[in-house]
Amino acid sequence: MTGSARAALLAVDGLRVTVPGAGRPILDGVALTVRDGEAVALVGESGSGKSVTARTALGLFPAGADVSGSVVVGGTEVVGAGSGALKRVRTADAAMIFQDPRAGVNPVRRIGDFLTEPLRRIRGESKAAATARALELLGAVGLPDPPRHLRQFPHELSGGMLQRVMIAYALTADPRLLLCDEPTTALDVTTQAEIMAILARLRRERGLGMLLITHDLDLAAAVCDRVYVMYAGRIMEAAPSDVLIAAPRHPYTRGLLGSAPPLTGPLARLTPIPGAPLGLAETVGGCPFAARCPHAVPGLCDTTEPEPEPEVDGDSMVACLRAAELGASLIEETQGESS
Amino acid sequence: MSSVTVSGPRPRFGGAAARLAAVARLTWPVRICAALLVLVVLGAVSAPWLAPYDPASGDLSSTLAGMSGDHWLGTDAGGHDTFSQLLAGGRTSLLGPLGVVVFSTVSGVLAGLFSAWRGGWVDALIGRVLDIMFAFPSLLLAILAVALFGKGLGAPVVAMAIAYMPYTARLVRGLTQQEKMRPYIAAYRVQGHSGTFIALRRVLPAIGPTVLAQSTVNFGYALLDLAALSFLGLGVQPPTADWGAMINQSQAAVLEGQPLSAVLPALLVVVVVVAVTVVGEHFGDRLSGREAKA
Amino acid sequence: MTAPLLEAVGLRKAYGANVAVSDLSFTLEAGGALGLVGESGSGKTTTARMLIGLEQPDRGGILVRGKPLAHASRLERAKAVQIVFQDPYLSLDPRLTIRAALDDVLRLHGHPDRPGRIAELLDQVGLGEREAAARPRGLSGGQRQRAAIARALAVEPGVLVLDEAVSALDVSIQAQVLNLLADVRRETGVGIVFVSHDLAVVRYLCDEALVLHRGVVVERGPVEALLQDPRDPYTRLLISSVPHTGWSPEEISKQRRALIRG
């Protein structure tokens, strides 16, 4: 693969995060890569650990957590890093956009002050230079009237506009990697398309790598090159987007695909995954998905932990004990549904 | 590969074990305070049986006595047994604030709940009236009541209850306004429940614990205010025993070098106020913590 | 000719100068399911609140089986229209167990056999004894929404309004609740007004839909026809905004700007 030759912006390996009092690790053996200029999605339901994984890239770990493994961002190891290295990662290598843009701004400060502060304090730019840069960034995220927005307060902007301000804020650090944690979940569908368009353009123009955290498998596949599917703190499956949608190899991925009603094509009754996502208090012996899996074999899946099996190209993997046996039948199920 | 432990507060989990841990961590000062309160209340309630002497009649043959087998905590200038007076004084000193709190809580809850539930101009009007009532200092209002209706326990208690009412009313009004906005209250309306039912049977129990916590703290303030009034000679009149009045009566004793009859009631006032406040605030904190978690 | 199950006639609601809903009319036949599709600010939630009587329309009215809702008593209204809100955690009383919450509604409406009806409801929404004895805090998101659905169905309403009732749920749980709602519709014949921003979900549950944009119905019709041959540019934008393979958000962004300008 040509992709493998590109430098890794984010390389997570064997990441395990445990907190005292929980029944299972928050993250267990998480491994993922985001290369230069690549868009990668991390998909999962609530409690899957997808947000926790993204935060580790900025050196943000849950309070009181035991962390082992490796998280390398732009060449810097974040696990166990000192505050100097962390500051460099956070101000130069990676920046994050969150779900709720209103939670990330001080409501009584003007957009201009909010945007120029990091430029002046961290990059030491003059006030005039910082303002010029803020104007440029607001233009870059497609806001119609940057000079006016600089003087506005957060409450004067709609959610979609404010999320664009947050993207501009993330860009003040001039990062190579953008971590987007459910950036459009709180927004309308048409606004979601708008934000995704801006992110796509920024990626193209600036060659940014992106890690998109989302619960929406369709969105992930539509805008990203590769998708990782997480469940209960583990990566269940990873594959290029089109492959994952057309030929899922993990029963969980298959279940997620069967859970979303289609907008086009024949309308069959949904085949939801039974039960509920695994809570943090619950313990795991074997495969965490075994209890909900229609293909689980008693005595095997609930006792033996599946080892992630990477593919030859390095872009795909699946953590299922029965992946080889199930392969063809899962694809058949999926295609039978969409034809 | 490396391994680190992130320092910081332990994450909070639901579950009985965590709650038990929280109780074990928080309650020692609270437990001591609660035990002290129980002791004081028991003493006050059983004063007629426990007191070795009649607290109202002094024995002029043994005035200003020190601690002894006859008089465990000595006597004052009038020959009253200090221990007996402390026990009997507890009754009036606790009963007064209790009256203040009961009256102010009941009237405050009714006013606040009604105001917030009705909303509109009724709420605006009641809000204004409460603002005006806030302008009256409780102690001055009580002194005014004494001037008008005479000394004793009754007039100051009523006056202070009126002065304390706006605090409860404002709290209840705010909590009710907040609760009223929640979808589950809308759901009750959709199910066909009447406004009165929702307000009294659903909203009131929901905000009740927070209001009770506030009332507990109010009890401490009322105790302090009433003791001050008695000390000024405007409250409970001798020969009825009262902690504030005891301090007042013992000024001579202090000068004579037998300060026990003044120091001990003062100490009791402080202990009860602190204990009530600690217990009340612990109660309130726990409730607001639960709110934050939910 | 019998009157339709639910009829909204010329509904209008304004908050000050901001017109949330203007001249909205629709009918819902018994056993039908109607989708109200729109984004935030479309007026769909205001419409839902008018249907259940939490808001009074400035103009127009709502008829249930030909009778104006405005003249109905509290209990009559409750039996006519019920609602399931978006967030079951906020719409269930935190202090009542699920069983107590159900008992509460049934007692209010004077149901003759409350324990029997509760058992029936729990069975219908797929909750067990453990869930019935729990408070909302002790339940998962999906279980809470099942409880909220049971509570809404308790008095056998004619119309069930679902206000983004599956939007807050995880994908796998959403599918379970959607299937439950489809079953409820089939088994009870309750009329459904499904308020949602999600076209795919509306397609799964509804026969017909209204597309709302800034308080105005821009398009209406059978869902399949709407999806396959949308006439209004806003409907087209809404459909193309749903992510799919080969999706180009930048194209949609251009489309959206053209619409805002036009």
TrEMBL record, chain A:
<protein>
    <submittedName>
        <fullName>ABC transporter ATP-binding protein</fullName>
    </submittedName>
</protein>
<dbReference type="InterPro" id="IPR003439">
    <property type="entry name" value="ABC_transporter-like_ATP-bd"/>
</dbReference>
<dbReference type="Pfam" id="PF00005">
    <property type="entry name" value="ABC_tran"/>
</dbReference>
<keyword id="KW-1003">Cell membrane</keyword>
<dbReference type="Pfam" id="PF08352">
    <property type="entry name" value="oligo_HPY"/>
</dbReference>
<keyword id="KW-0067">ATP-binding</keyword>
<feature type="domain" description="ABC transporter">
    <location>
        <begin position="10"/>
        <end position="257"/>
    </location>
</feature>
<comment type="similarity">
    <text>Belongs to the ABC transporter superfamily.</text>
</comment>
<dbReference type="InterPro" id="IPR027417">
    <property type="entry name" value="P-loop_NTPase"/>
</dbReference>
<dbReference type="GO" id="GO:0005524">
    <property type="term" value="F:ATP binding"/>
</dbReference>
<keyword id="KW-0547">Nucleotide-binding</keyword>
<keyword id="KW-0472">Membrane</keyword>
<dbReference type="InterPro" id="IPR003593">
    <property type="entry name" value="AAA+_ATPase"/>
</dbReference>
<keyword id="KW-0813">Transport</keyword>
<dbReference type="InterPro" id="IPR050388">
    <property type="entry name" value="ABC_Ni/Peptide_Import"/>
</dbReference>
UniProtKB/TrEMBL annotation, chain B:
<keyword id="KW-0813">Transport</keyword>
<keyword id="KW-1003">Cell membrane</keyword>
<keyword id="KW-1133">Transmembrane helix</keyword>
<dbReference type="InterPro" id="IPR000515">
    <property type="entry name" value="MetI-like"/>
</dbReference>
<dbReference type="InterPro" id="IPR035906">
    <property type="entry name" value="MetI-like_sf"/>
</dbReference>
<feature type="transmembrane region" description="Helical">
    <location>
        <begin position="219"/>
        <end position="240"/>
    </location>
</feature>
<dbReference type="InterPro" id="IPR050366">
    <property type="entry name" value="BP-dependent_transpt_permease"/>
</dbReference>
<feature type="transmembrane region" description="Helical">
    <location>
        <begin position="94"/>
        <end position="117"/>
    </location>
</feature>
<comment type="similarity">
    <text>Belongs to the binding-protein-dependent transport system permease family.</text>
</comment>
<feature type="transmembrane region" description="Helical">
    <location>
        <begin position="260"/>
        <end position="280"/>
    </location>
</feature>
<feature type="transmembrane region" description="Helical">
    <location>
        <begin position="28"/>
        <end position="51"/>
    </location>
</feature>
<dbReference type="Pfam" id="PF00528">
    <property type="entry name" value="BPD_transp_1"/>
</dbReference>
<keyword id="KW-0472">Membrane</keyword>
<feature type="transmembrane region" description="Helical">
    <location>
        <begin position="129"/>
        <end position="149"/>
    </location>
</feature>
<protein>
    <recommendedName>
        <fullName>ABC transmembrane type-1 domain-containing protein</fullName>
    </recommendedName>
</protein>
Automatic annotation (TrEMBL), chain C:
<dbReference type="InterPro" id="IPR027417">
    <property type="entry name" value="P-loop_NTPase"/>
</dbReference>
<dbReference type="InterPro" id="IPR013563">
    <property type="entry name" value="Oligopep_ABC_C"/>
</dbReference>
<dbReference type="InterPro" id="IPR050319">
    <property type="entry name" value="ABC_transp_ATP-bind"/>
</dbReference>
<dbReference type="InterPro" id="IPR003439">
    <property type="entry name" value="ABC_transporter-like_ATP-bd"/>
</dbReference>
<dbReference type="Pfam" id="PF00005">
    <property type="entry name" value="ABC_tran"/>
</dbReference>
<protein>
    <submittedName>
        <fullName>ATP-binding cassette domain-containing protein</fullName>
    </submittedName>
</protein>
<dbReference type="InterPro" id="IPR003593">
    <property type="entry name" value="AAA+_ATPase"/>
</dbReference>
<keyword id="KW-0547">Nucleotide-binding</keyword>
<dbReference type="InterPro" id="IPR017871">
    <property type="entry name" value="ABC_transporter-like_CS"/>
</dbReference>
<feature type="domain" description="ABC transporter">
    <location>
        <begin position="6"/>
        <end position="239"/>
    </location>
</feature>
<comment type="similarity">
    <text>Belongs to the ABC transporter superfamily.</text>
</comment>
<keyword id="KW-0067">ATP-binding</keyword>
<dbReference type="GO" id="GO:0005524">
    <property type="term" value="F:ATP binding"/>
</dbReference>
<dbReference type="Pfam" id="PF08352">
    <property type="entry name" value="oligo_HPY"/>
</dbReference>
<keyword id="KW-0813">Transport</keyword>
